[in-house]
Every structure is written in C-alpha cells, then in structure tokens.
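Handoff note, outgoing to incoming analyst
You'll be picking up this chain. Sequence as last confirmed:
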Amino acid sequence: MLLRVDITFGVVLGALLIVAVTVAALAHLGRAREIAVAGVRAAVQLGVVSLVIGWVVGAVPPLLGFVALMYAVAVRTAGRRVTGNRTWWWAAVPIGAGVAPVMTALLLTGVVPAKGIAVIPITGILIGGALTATVLGGRRALDELHARRGEVEAGLALGLLERDARMEVARPAAADALLPGLDQTRTVGLVTLPGAFVGMLLGGASPVLAGAVQLFVLVALMAVQAVAVSVVLELVARGRLHREE
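Most recent structure output, in case you need it:
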C-alpha cells in the first residue's frame, strides 16, 4: 500500500492543512480561509464518493448523473472564479467544448471502454483540466483588458472591430493558461510521476502500460485545455463573459 490509512494518517493530514492555512495567514495571502474550507470539503467529498462509487459505476443512469454533477460543479466553480456577475454561466461553453468532443472520440474509437470504472476517472481528469484552463484563461484575459483598456480604445480609434481590439490585448495573456499543462507534459518522468502512472503501477500494471496511459491522459488534457482557452478567450473578446466596471 502507498499509504496506511489510520489515525496517524488523519493526524498528519490535519497538521499539513493547518500548516497551509497558517503560512497563508502569516504571509497575508488572503486565502487562508479558502484553503481551510477547500481541505475540509475535499475530505468530505472524497469520503462520500468513495462510499457511492461502486453503485455509480454499475448502472448507466447514476453514471450519467454523476458526470453531469461533475460538469455542473466545474462550471459553477470556474464561472465564479472568472467573474462575480451573472455571466458566470458562460463558463459552461469552454468546459463543454473542450471535454465533450475529446471524450466522445475516445469512447467511439474504443480507446476508453464504455464502462463506469473507466469513464468516471477519465472524464473527471478532463473536466478538471478544462476547469483550470478556463479559470486561468478567463481571469488573465479580463485582467489584461482592464489594465490595458487604453490600448483597446486605441485599436477602436484605428478602425478595429471591438472583438478584434480586445482579442489583440487579451490573447497573449489568456495563452499563459496553457503553460501548466505544457510544463507538466514536457517534464513528465523527469520531474514528476503523475497520478495515473503511479496508480497504474500500484494496481499491478506494467511500467510500459502505465506510461502509455499517462501519455494518453497528458495529450488528451492538452487538447481539452487548448479548446477551453480558445473558447473562453473568444467569449471574453465578444463581451459574453465580462466583469462589471
């Protein structure tokens, strides 16, 4: 076993969470409460999922319902991270546009078997990647537009369409959202051994098979995130996803 789950495990886990909260508070990062809430929520959510996962993967209706729940939570989380107004729901578009076609292709080609035990983790990984890309891309694009609004106005004065003027300013910033995924893929095996690889090894798979699965996950994530960033950038440039001035 990789971890021994007992009282010591719980104590160490709690101590690590306290360290994270304390450091954030002492450094005045403004995220101490969010870190504490995130840690507690993660424990509760994973506990519940661990109890119901066997039932979910055994039948189609609960499987689809669970996937829909993952998607809804991702949309809400991403949207609220990007903006606090009612346009947050537009986050559903980049996340869906990134995950749906990739997951459909994987199922139709048989690369991912149409079984709950495979669909749930792969879909969860892809939705998580799309969520991260949408948040980073959307926030960076809107921040840049706010900081450089004079350049947007200058573009309009030169005759550019509003969408094009905003795109010229926001595109380079939004593209930075792809960097975490790119760096993870470029350094895999040299800096880190990601979860899918380690999990396959612990499950008894050969190193070659574990490496193939991890490579598949990383490449699929890059495709999903590229689509998500492109779509959220377009939504920001067209003013669909915005912040109140």
